[in-house]
Amino acid sequence: MPAKKQAAAKTRPRTKADPKAFAKTRARLDAKRAKRRRKMLWVHYWLLCPKCGGDMFVQKTLDIRFEVCRDCKGIAIDGEEVALLLAHLDPAKALRAILKKSKKPDETEI
Question: Residue 86 pLDDT > 80, yes or no?
Answer without folding.
Answer: yes
